Amino acid sequence: MAVKTRFALWPGHDVARAKGEDQMPEITVNMAAGRTEEQKAGMMRDITKALVTNLGVDAEAVVIQINEAPLAHKMKGGKTFVERAAKK
Fold it and tell me: What is the pLDDT of residues 34-85, one digit of tens each?
């Protein structure tokens, strides 16, 4: 699972930054498909809590997106995740 953090920039960002309004973290999580909706929602809640606690942002400002890839479309160590699962 790869996690990327990006702070959005928009026209007038410098003005908003001066006013302290640039605290809009957007988190993208790339992972193999297969987790339940409950697992994904729990992960997103935990990420939101971590950003609120560690960055001091408002939970309402946090945006999280999950990108899921089918197991056949994701590879590690030269083997797709389907191939890796078959070896277990």
Answer: 999 999 999 999 999 999 999 999 999 999 999 999 999 999 999 999 999 9
For residue 13, how far is the Cα from the chain centroid?
23
- DSSP assignment of the chain equals -EEEEEE---TTHHHHHHTT----EEEEEEEES---HHHHHHHHHHHHHHHHHHH---GGG-EEEEEEE-GGG-EETTEEHHHHHHT-
Strands 25-32 and 63-69, bridge-based pairing: parallel
For the record, the structure tokens of 49 come out as 């809590």
Residues taking part in catalysis: 25
pTM for this model (two decimals):
0.70
